[in-house]
Amino acid sequence: MKVGVIGIGLIGGSFAKDIKRIWPDSSIFGIDSNEAHLEQAIQLNLVDAKGDYDNLTDAELVIVSIPVDVLVRELPTILDACGDDTVVIDAGSTKKLICETVASHPKRRNFLACHPIAGTEFSGPSAAFEGLYEGKTNIICEVEKTAFKLQERALELFQKLNMRIRYMNPIAHDQHIAYVSHLSHISAFMLGKTVIEKEKNERDIFDMAGSGFESTVRLAKSSPDMWTPIFEQNKENVVETLEEYIENLQKFKQLLLDDDYQNVYNEMNNTNRIKQILKGIPLTKS
Amino acid sequence: MKVGVIGIGLIGGSFAKDIKRIWPDSSIFGIDSNEAHLEQAIQLNLVDAKGDYDNLTDAELVIVSIPVDVLVRELPTILDACGDDTVVIDAGSTKKLICETVASHPKRRNFLACHPIAGTEFSGPSAAFEGLYEGKTNIICEVEKTAFKLQERALELFQKLNMRIRYMNPIAHDQHIAYVSHLSHISAFMLGKTVIEKEKNERDIFDMAGSGFESTVRLAKSSPDMWTPIFEQNKENVVETLEEYIENLQKFKQLLLDDDYQNVYNEMNNTNRIKQILKGIPLTKS
């Protein structure tokens, strides 16, 4: 199988690693605006060679894993360049604008809109690893707009990766993901900011942080290049989640100010059931 | 060595496990208001026998690991019961009220105020494990108020556990810990609450949560029995951290509303240095 990976970082690189494992005879070319990353991807054996858009025409599978602003800009050109038998899948954390962008593209049937819910706070080719997608959820939007034969090819990959497929419309995707992913990132970034501002002596953070702060703030290590355009494209939903989060924090603060510790207890006790909700989530690489 | 552990959960039980490993000849008795936990602690070999306050008089080391409200209530009685050669250490997440409570106790010199910065989101005897304290920070307050010989005995334990000791006054402790620990817990609890409220269909959380939400919300599994009195005792500092956190979230929301994505980027980019700050923190059991 001839495979193209456009954007060869954590997401694209991890797909490439697994594809090599599943289909050892596949040939993978990489395209990346960052020349150093491309060199590194070749050295790490993530891809066999550099490529360009001319190579897309006879590729059977193309994975586009680039920041969502670049994705919206490049996807029409990528579809222009791909062949009739090419399936192009993306990995963007937003889906509405991306689907709208290619809605009337003549090669819309070559595109499958995907969001594999997987990642770490690290980025670049060196962050890629085999098994990132094992047991993870992959949200597919507007599946009916993709040619059936091409859907099948993509699904074969996801099945071999042992991913769990969920079909959703792009608007619902963007609403749900704002809560379970985008808000978590802002919460972590602002937690990190608040602590850094206060603790001018970084040695104190380091010494006192313990395990709690570290895991809660983990996502604040994430790439601003990736996340800024996500928040831009999903602004409306993200602002809504932020308003609800801020309101809950203000209520909690008021309970403390009122010395209403019975309700402080109740707030935490009611949220404890997150334990049961999360029980089914596969453990992730820490 | 005769050791007493008052409150035989994650914290006390993990101390007991390590003490058994370091001093196999030690005899450890457990005291707990929860009879089932006490039985379980014996079955798990965390302690050798049940005890009561009468046993404290000839104990060489007593670890008090109970919720901080119970600690403030019980500590004077525990000191009353202990012998001249007993060192009593606590593990409370607040220090000011605890130190004030025993400031003029006739056996103040038998008490060493400690806060081992270690734990997981789990609780009870079954959550205890060997090595919880390995490489972790232990904050000791008002060390000068403890008899030198008794300090030495406690420090020998911490040294054998490979803990890093930091001396701090109780007021500074409570201020710093509000930022690096207490705020993280509220941030996680309210994130969990916001998502649960919105996502009535818990299947959606489960399917979409991925790795990001899971780690950010992890602390929302923590025990309300333990955390309510911590927030009560450290109310003033906790409210201050919450105000700053809420303000940062509101500023971030405003940047989104203003479409000021350059500053959205800057906010995240500036906080990215949390990576370097956290680099030295030992990896924790996930």
Automatic annotation (TrEMBL), chains A, B:
For this protein, the record's Gene3D superfamilies field holds: 6-phosphogluconate dehydrogenase C-terminal like domain, NAD(P)-binding Rossmann-like Domain
Q: Which GO terms describe its biological process?
A: tyrosine biosynthetic process
Q: Does the keyword Signal apply?
A: no
Prephenate/arogenate dehydrogenase domain residues = 1-286
Q: Which GO terms describe its molecular function?
A: NAD+ binding; prephenate dehydrogenase (NAD+) activity; prephenate dehydrogenase (NADP+) activity
Looking up Pfam families in the UniProt record yields: PDH_C, PDH_N
Q: Does the keyword Transcription apply?
A: no
Coiled-coil portions: none
Transmembrane ranges, per UniProt, are none
- Domain of life where this protein originates: Bacteria
Keywords, A to Z, come to: Oxidoreductase
PROSITE patterns with a match to the protein in the record:
PDH_ADH
Protein name per UniProt: Prephenate dehydrogenase
Q: Which organism is it from?
A: Flagellimonas allohymeniacidonis
